[in-house]
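hey can u check if this looks right to u? its 469 residues, i copy pasted from the old doc so theres a chance i mangled smth
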Amino acid sequence: MLDRGLFRSAGFRFGVIYALLLAISAVALASFLWWATAGLLDRQTDAAIYADAQDLAARWSDGGLQALASTIDDRLAQNVDDDAIYLLADPAMHRIAGNLASWPATVAQVGTAYELQLQRAGMSSLAYVQRYDLPGDYHLLIGRDVKVRAQLRTLLTDALLWAVLVVVLMATIGALVIRSLFRRTLANISATATAIAAGDFAQRVKLTGRGDEFDQLAEVINDMLDRIGRLMDGVRQVSNAIAHDLRTPITRARTRLEDATLHASSPDDLRAAIERATADLDGIVAVFQALLRIAQIEAGSRRSAFARLDIVPLLAEVVDLYGAVAEERGISLQVDTPPHVAAYGDRALIQQAIANLVDNAVKFSPSDGVVRVGALVGGTVAVTVSDQGPGIPMADRAKATDRFYRGESARSTPGSGLGLSLVQAVAQLHGGSLRLEDSDPGLRAILSLPMPEDGAADARADNPDDRDT
């Protein structure tokens, strides 16, 4: 009994499709060859009989019965191949001229071709004939001996049939080979997927090195597995970071509440302990809110709020927000923007991202430092925030946008290590990017955002140097 799973396998279906296409192609080629050879012989015979009929009809019209009979005899005498067949009969079907002894009984219809066995010159032959009726109830039979052509046609037909059978056999073998190759290729992918499902994330699909479509598929799958591995590592790192960073404030809040329970001597002492513990817990809630916000941004749930916006007033709002803090620390906030900078995106998220960059710049700048905020228009909108702080070493910049990452210079600075992670998420949501560069001294953060479709025209209007003169 055949395996029912065989018919459901993709390899079997591909093999059958391959075999059918090859067999259909072979049959089509054989049919064309037959039409071009055996069919050509039949068409040539029809054309020769038709030409004879036209000529003999003209002789009948010019000279009557005697001229027609004389012409038939002349043509038979000049027929070197001895394949011409003529018979001129009177109304009683008696022979007048030609190389047949009598009229074939089966040839009764005018305009119909007949292929039949005839006795000619004492020998049996295969004839292809047609009947024509003449005025005066005379009858004319014109044909050709097609015995040799019939043998050639039979030989050709048999050869083509055998060729088709061989092609069908080869197609079947090829289908089995394709099915086997398909199964071996998918077995590699299936084994890798099984290992991944079992928890072995180190497995990868093997490449054949041929650079074909299966190698391309394997590369895509391996890239996907690499990304999954990085995401899993990120999840583990984030989990560890959450456990590490939140353990201290939770423990501190618990210790303060326990201490207040055991040693508070007045309602004011108890209230102060509760307020300090509440502040610690608020910091924990803020961390989780930031994580949820980053997750929402990465999921793309805010794309519905995208709209055209002007970056300049948005930058002004952020600078006003941090102006007092910067002034208290003796930091100068400088803004350099054109009158208008058109962008496209979620205003609230972009403002939050810029605020995070300005907050970091103010937080890490020295007391007499300068923080510069600007916007440049090119193929995209580039929002730049530069400070004069310690900066980020080149080796650590790739990790600076990881969640909870804090460099050595930031260990003593308040924060959760989620600020640049949120900026990176906002940039990716908008199809932009976040770059960190040296500012000599300090750090320059460049947030690239897309322009609206008519943003290029706006940029030219806002920049007089780019106008045609």
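Residues 4-36+154-189 form one domain.
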